[in-house]
Amino acid sequence: AVTQALIDTEALQLRFIEEIDGPRQVIGPPSEISIPLVDVSAELDPQAAAEAWMKADLASPVDLLRGPLLRFALFKAAPARFFWYQRYHHVLIDGFGVVLFKRRVADIYTALVNKVPCSGNPFGSLAVLLEEDASYRASERFARDRRYWLECLADRPEPVSLSGRPATNCSCILRRSAHLPHSSAETL
User: Over the stretch 131-143, which tens digit does the pLDDT of each residue have?
Assistant: First the structure.
């Protein structure tokens, strides 16, 4: 399911190369992605063991030219309990894109489990998106939109951080998972 979703998602097929006149973004076929199965079920605290592995991976630097710019792993915490780890460099995809990708993986997985055809690829071509963006940026509409927002935001102060320093990398997992009763999920 992950492999097919990667084939469907051109944004996750990007790689970067260095040329004489600067870096370039290239869309290429998806590189071979391995999804290791890491069995932590024998650990005293399987979830903590999985999270320690994830934190160590998140703390490792990523070379934009060599990658990998994304990584997956599946952790077995118990016979019927698994964690799916995903790491994406923000240069490839944002949080909303990750949600769309996860939804695509879930759709493909569900189709495979139920032995039914998978729905068509919901993602468009990155080349078409780039063409549309270039066309917009060359248009009078872009110039008008830019003037509007510059006027609206002219009196705003420079951005600041809470610490007074530039943002730094965070290697911690900032997520809390909980289970809702079906009735609460339906209400939501």
Answer: 999 999 999 999 9
